Amino acid sequence: MELTREEESALKGEQGEIMQMAYRILVATGEATDAEKLVPIEWTHLSGVNYNTIGDAGEEFLSSISKDARVKVKTTLNPMGFDIDNVSNYGLDENFISKQLSIRNSYEIMGVIPSFSCIPYEIFEIPKDGTQVAFAESNAAIHANSYDNLKTNKESAFSALASALTGKSPYSSLRKEDSPNVTIRMKVNDPNELTYGMLGFFAGKVGDISVNISGLGEMDNRQCKAMCGGMGTSGTCAKFIFGEGESDAEKIDFDEKAMQNVYDELNTSEKGDIITLGSPQLGLEEISELAGKLKGRTFEKRCMIFTPRTVKEQANKIGYTNELERAGCEILSDCCTCLTPLINKENVDAVTTNSIKGAFYLKNSNGVGVNLKSLSQIIEDETR
Hints:
Number of helices: 15
Strand order of the largest sheet: 12-11-10-13-14
Subunit structure: Heterodimer composed of a large subunit (PMDh-L) and a small subunit (PMDh-S).
Pfam families: AcnX
Protein name: Phosphomevalonate dehydratase large subunit
Family: Belongs to the AcnX type II large subunit family.
Largest sheet: 5 strands, parallel
Oligomer: single chain
């Protein structure tokens, strides 16, 4: 890789141990992804926040570097493991709570914005087209590349943190204008958000760096997020291009059979003990839509809704949260369906959800069964 004098100096340790560590991570990542240089970035979004995912080693590492490390660019955070406002309601282990709060504190000391959201594209202003960013959250990286006209690699927790500390990121293939290796032709009638989540999951498996999708009509925000979330769980692919034009790329159909195969892989239960909505977290538009669908109706079982704190505050002012709570919803901020200790196999056998991303992690990480349904079907089946 070609480095500037300043970058070479940092790599040699002349700017301190933390910067040396950060540049080592970036150079190793760049060499592994055939990047010829590092480029300046304006925004980083970090994963590696939930104690469930980074454990004691991660907590101790962040605590040690926070004494001296400071981020150089706007830096936002993925969800953590609980909502501090109601953590006492869930009987969580005191060690988990203590270590999670330590992680939160370390990031705040370093100057990171405590957003605790996997949908930064909905709660922060999007920079101008073509802006280089570094997003570690998979659905956010795909959304940035595909919908927001930004450029990011599909970052790891370490590479995104290194980018936050240096303001640089490897100039790898996702930052360039490479052609997709696969065109996926959508051939499913009457798709909903669950369909788009399955399409994303399918695309993530068959695509390499990016894929072209044809045959799609206009999508709403929920369908877009579902597709990004599904794709982020199943492979390395991190960009959709939409178009009907012919290309030399391999052509694969996403039809009813392909959709059923994805559904059969992730749907493992005929019913759920609880309902979860918000993976990716729900934005204000989705909260509004849900409140409208629930007017006069009440969930017959526990329903957990995950949303960013800033969205919950907006929903409070408008009155949406009153309607959702009346319908029996628990509204949680700062955390997410995925990897949360709030849902575990000791007290839940299966979860009903409309999220492909949520289904993947609930099944593979939380170890619970999954009952997949669209939001409309959930409301029809689970409310009275």
